Amino acid sequence: MLDVDDLIDDPETRVIVCCGSGGVGKTTTAAAIALRAAERGRQTVVLTIDPARRLAQALGLRELGNHPRQVKVEGFDPKGELWAMMLDMRRTFDDMVRAHAGPDRAEQLLANPFYQTISTSFSGTQEYMAMEKLGQLAATGDWDLIVVDTPPSRSALDFLDAPTRLSSALDGRMIRLLTAPAKAGGWGLRKVVSAGFTMFAKAVSTIIGGQLLADASAFMQAFDTMFGGFRERARKTAELLRSKGTAFLVVASPEPDALREASYFVDRLSAESMPLSGLVANRTHPVLADVPANAAITAAERAESRAPLAAAVLQLHADRVALAEREERLLARFTRAHPEVPIVRVPALPSDVHDVAGLRDIGDRLAPTD
């Protein structure tokens, strides 16, 4: 059985990454783990990539920004500290440019219309900026535990590929053609290195417009000097994710689609040599009363005419037993496919988690004592 306390009490655990499909409770799980770690003495920061405000609301904060904010609310007096933040993709990209491009070149890049477009919409930008922010948090040394809440669905693991994909895109043939005029002695787009590029430029200008092509060329000229550092930081963060101090937790509800996605995550993490610690089976429905479903249904039928309330309760119990048995079959199927993956079951709560007390309750259920 997975025991989250074993992870957070181990001083060698420096990063916990919660991944899984959408709607399974990753944000709540990440926040509960971070809160529990802080209460047990860790200097903890939780980073969410989910733009929803659930994390801020549960921590008693009006909003979260792109830089960590310490959580201080009534009834929360941890042995350690808890900080929280939400990734702002554009601001992270801007900060990276300012930090590594130099003042003059940074302003040139930030004002470029092509940069303003790709910093929010280029494929892989969000995942790469998540890697960049994780690397920044780790580099400060201010926290001894970083908890990461990832985007939903299979994109939750796209940040493993993001540095390679973004580097390849920015270093690809089309981008190199865009850069060629700027590298050809500053002659600009009117004088290019070959007739072939002239034809290319005309074709692209027809499709995307000459000004955008000029902006792209100017952007790549300015960006070229910081590209090496761009890739080097991504490499270091990738090494961090593969290190002994990182633990991946796959979060899933006991539903076929969610567990199918969980199997994908487990296989992918194994293929990438990522340190998987276990599966959080969230929102399960355990049965507390030891009454078989068939017996409850029979008793409900007998009581229907003379005790309708009792009959309704018995029918609800029978439905709950059937649901619990279905969930157990699904989880057993997952275990047969992945016998090496420990599981912790977190029962569904009667209402949504919206405060520290609710997060603390989830934390207790992530670390069962029996």
Question: Can you offer a commentary on this structure?
Answer:
By secondary structure, this protein is of the alpha/beta class. It folds into two domains: 4-165 and 222-285 and 348-366, Rossmann fold (3-Layer(aba) Sandwich); 293-326. It is built from 16 helices and eight strands. The protein has an eight-stranded mixed beta sheet with strand order 3-4-2-5-1-6-7-8, with helices on both faces. Strand 6 (246-252), helix 13 (256-271) and strand 7 (276-284) form a beta-alpha-beta unit. The longest helix is centred in the last third of the chain and has 30 residues, at 308-337.
Throw out a few tags for this protein.
single chain, alpha/beta, Rossmann fold, eight-stranded mixed sheet, 16 helices, elongated
Q: What is the level 1 CATH name of the largest domain?
A: Alpha Beta
How many DSSP-defined strands? Answer: 8
Low-confidence stretches: 181-209
CATH architecture of the largest domain: 3-Layer(aba) Sandwich
- Helical segment count: 16
- Quickly count the domains: 2
Rg, Cα atoms, Å: 26 Å
Strand order of the largest sheet: 3-4-2-5-1-6-7-8
Helix-strand topology string: HEHEHEEHHHHEHHHHHEHEHHEH
Determine the fraction of residues in helical runs and give it as a percent range: 55-70%
What is the end-to-end distance? 10 Å
CATH superfamily of the largest domain: P-loop containing nucleotide triphosphate hydrolases
Fill in the CATH topology of the largest domain: Rossmann fold
Largest sheet: 8 strands, mixed
Protein name: ArsA family ATPase
InterPro entries: ArsA/GET3_ATPase-like, ATPase_ArsA/GET3, P-loop_NTPase
Pfam families: ArsA_ATPase
GO molecular function, one term: ATP hydrolysis activity
